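Title: Prediction job returns without error message
Component: structure pipeline
Severity: low
Priority: P3
Assignee: unassigned

Description:
Job completed but the reporter wants confirmation the result is attached to the right record. Sequence as submitted:
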Amino acid sequence: MKHTTTITHWKITGIVSTLIIVVSIPLYMVQDRARRSAANAAITPAAEFVGSEACRDCHRGEYDKWKGSHHQRAMAVASDETVLGDFADAEFHHLGVTTRFFRKDGRFMVTTQGPRGEMGDFEVTHTFGWFPLQQYLIPFPGGRLQCLPIAWDSRENRWYHLYPNHPLAADDWLYWTNNGQNWNAMCAECHSTDLRKNYDPDKETYRTDWSEISVGCEACHGPGSNHVAWARLPEMGRPEAVNTALAVKTSGLTSARQVTLCAPCHARRMSLDDNIHDHADFLDYGIPQLLSEGMYFPDGQILDEVYVYGSFIQSKMHARDVRCSDCHDVHSIRRIKDGNNLCLQCHRAAVYDTRDHHFHKQAGEPGDPIRKKSGEILFEVGSGAQCEGCHMPGRIYMGVDYRPDHSFRIPRPDLSLALGTPNACNRCHVNQTVQWSVNAIAKWYGKKKRPHYGTILAAGRRQEAQALPELIRLAGDRLYPDIVRATALSLASSDPDQDASESLKGALSDESALLRHTAVNRLSIPDPKQRIALVGPLLYDPVRAVRIEAARRLVTAVQSGLGASLSQPYEKALAAYIKAMQRTGDFAASRHNLGNLYVDLGQTEQAISHFRKAIAIDPLFYPAKVNLAMLYNAKGQNDAAEALLREVVKEYPDLYEIMYSLGLLLAERRAFDEAVIYLGDAAAALPQRSRIQYNLALLLKQLNRNAEAEFALNRALSVDPNNPDYLYALAVLYMEWNRTEDALKVAVQLHERHPDLAMGRNLVNYIKSASAGNE
């Protein structure tokens, strides 16, 4: 890439090219995997899925609990028995559009806006869910099923819109006929058993199928053909096969294994393959969402629709081996006890189910009010006497679906003051201030508060310099939940500090696969040979997500020679990575990942194709636009590169990193007057980014705006006071500005702080010589 002599390379922020390092993986993990493989291999032939009806005769009690449950009703063919919504010529009005629900020739039909916003008639072929809402699926070409945005409120018996105040254009990713509402990609694998997505990334079509349309017995117990065959043998001749031929023997599971069994469908995650309903580690199947901004509040409370897993594994309950079945009947999915009795299985009633603990009225006492809504939060005023009211404050998703937070946290209104997070107190006491809640908690329980990781993660999100030591400490403290530690590690990795790098290196040998994967994904090692030495062993990691991420990070190092021991596992893991991305190639992010991969492989046209496809899937997915702009720039197609960056800045005016990139590109194109505007806005918004201040200063100097250039350089030096480039640029500015004394003072600083650099010594000598010559 060619640039002007006064501006450093324009920076593309969309590509993530972090590299990896590794150390040994605990031996017991490999041995455990080997034992599981040996046990499964003992069952022959390979087990197949046979459906829940095959389980009924022997397991009638469990079957009857399951029948009619949310799992059993997760999906169904549309029929008089399964459809709850009103299709008797019912009309629903929303934002000027009238949708009609009716029957025609025994079919369930909808007249509404369809592709391109045009009105049309559509047939509902499947129901999706049951309570508190039911959605409806409509077939489209290419094997697609699309989720209608108008759902049935099963509690209030009414039609309602899932985006009531958010009109969507027909080309929006979330518009109901587009990918954001595509059943095959977004919903299917958690509502059916043995679902096979079968997406063809070249044809962009689906052949999605399943062994059972809803969540059946085998979703938890695994394929049951061998168990059924074993059960049908004469009792006296029945061999004691491994696990009585069950693919997954759920009785006797450890807490961790049971949670892992439920996690694939109860976690916000990126799946790597179809769910085989039996994974030794969750990261064999998918990569869970960390406590990221926009998904969780900084203290780990639920924000976006993240489901249960990410919350539960933060909790003390999880740390103490509480499992899903301690609260939920695994077959009916109902709670095993009502109200506080659920919690009093473990917590003493005499201590916790008392006014002295919760300081609230019990249900039924005078003044006990009724259920209400407050914005997005559903609550019962007076529910402070209920454990769930204070320790599991929830949020409403999909308009009517209230979901409690499963992190089981202590109410912390003091964190609301510090971090802007919600708290259980003001959830009910909506007319009181947060300070009022802080005072009430202090009066009841005392003023002393334990430190909370939320303050550290919040500082990390803000990229505060003083946050780094605490992020590193948190990431290395095994007393904290793995998801908290991995989040801290990810935040720390944004700092190029050597301590952050060492923290990432240490995490590569962590017992937690989530920590290892985060370290692999975030650690950058520019030297190819060092990268191979450190990352290579992770190709043998027992967990799939770690192996394939290691292969991805080694792509640009393979020319240095992997060696015989690493070549085969590298090829295998990289093929698995490509397969995982192709499987989810109907998502813009996966196409973007493939584009980045082919950039590293030197296959530019392939990369451009995937970036373009990512943009076609979701025109607002800006990372693909930024990376495509970089490729266009490399090919000399700067008009196209500039157009893409302008689109991103227009669509996302708060993305100052991209504004910085656009400013540098404009400077490269010698559009200095406009470039300085973008660089100036980026510098003002990101004062801690010293390089932006430096580049702005160079451009201002070129425009003969020396006073502003001086200010920008001093701001860069306030962040990085010993940077030799900044000191040199300031000294040169003073020289050209005929401020010789100031120039000499800065040059002396440069020489004293970097005596090994010739430029400082030479600059001092030059200024002194020039000054003497002028006398």
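Comment from assignee: result matches the submitted record. Confidence is low (pLDDT under 50) at residues 1-43, 367-382.
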